[in-house]
Amino acid sequence: FFTISLTGFSSITYDIELQSGANLRSFPALPDDVSVANIFTPIVDELDGIIGEGVAANYIPGLGFVGSLVDVSPTAGYWIKTTSATDLEVTGMPSENLTYILHSGANLISYPFFGSQSLGDAIPDGLIDELSGIIGEGVAANYIPGLGFVGSLVNLSGTNGYWFIIESPINFSFNQPTGLSRSFEEPSEPPVGFEYVQSTEQSFYFIENIDGIEIGDWIVAYSNGNVVGAREWIGPYTDIPAMGFDGSISTIGYCESGQVPEFKVFKEGLGEGLSVSGVIPEWSSNEIYTLGSLQTNEIPSSVVLNPAYPNPFNPQTTISFSIPSDDSIQLGVYDSMGRIVADITSGFYQAGYYEFEWDAADFSSGIYFVKMEINGSIHMQKIMLLK
Question: What does DSSP assign to residue 44?
């Protein structure tokens, strides 16, 4: 993503390549003037905004740069949003002996060296103990005791930014590179039809196994009928990205907090794909989820609202349904007077099998009705809460 040239004995000039859209970047060398205006003015015609951790800047013709982001930090990462592909040239002094002060949760930071370094070589042992995961631009890594780092992110690279998700506050410094940088294989590009837009809001689902999946199959994530992520299966704990809505037109319909993305497995020659079922957490930005084994299901042949189980129940029951084609669903629980008492789910779902748990701990004993509306038809069943 960058090229370097020496301008003297102490400073370095380098180019950061920016694709159209969202780019997660950092600055391993900065000039004396670290103001946003000084660094980004050369690309204002292509610039659509800069987002840091809790801060942002935008260029307004006639006003210049506005917003809470005023200076660029060598320890920080930034989303640089552009309207077209361009290169950002920077001349400055390389960073030395940087200390990173991390809080619990997600920290948007830099990698301070040029070149690339494996996660195992770059990250000190003390940080690994507090590390819940690392998220880059469309890639992620998770640390599994006994396995080490898993996922599509295998190295840290100069000029890239990263979200480090930390359990407890910690201060650290990256290990110094010990030799020549190494090259690493990047994740395969999605096949035609599975493309998606890189968003500044993203999360990753690390899946240990999917029943019947094979190396080379593709797992595709959907939200509201839109492809929001895709990854080639490379073995246990493959990470599947799920992009979220970040306010831009190109990410309308992408994941939002509280939604559950849908996954399908595509094998060579299988046009429809196989729906994936199992326990899949709700989406939230900058999260890493570690899932166990999931199952693939053949596409259902008809719309079915399955009998709730258990029934009678106290206080939880599982409500499930299957649909043979992509459609909008409204699923709720109603009392004997026809009043809705629980909105189980609503939205656009891919063809497949789905299940939800209703916790009626706050409801009184009695008869209730589950009602599913789809494509103008209504499916209902009676359930009984006994306390």
Answer: T
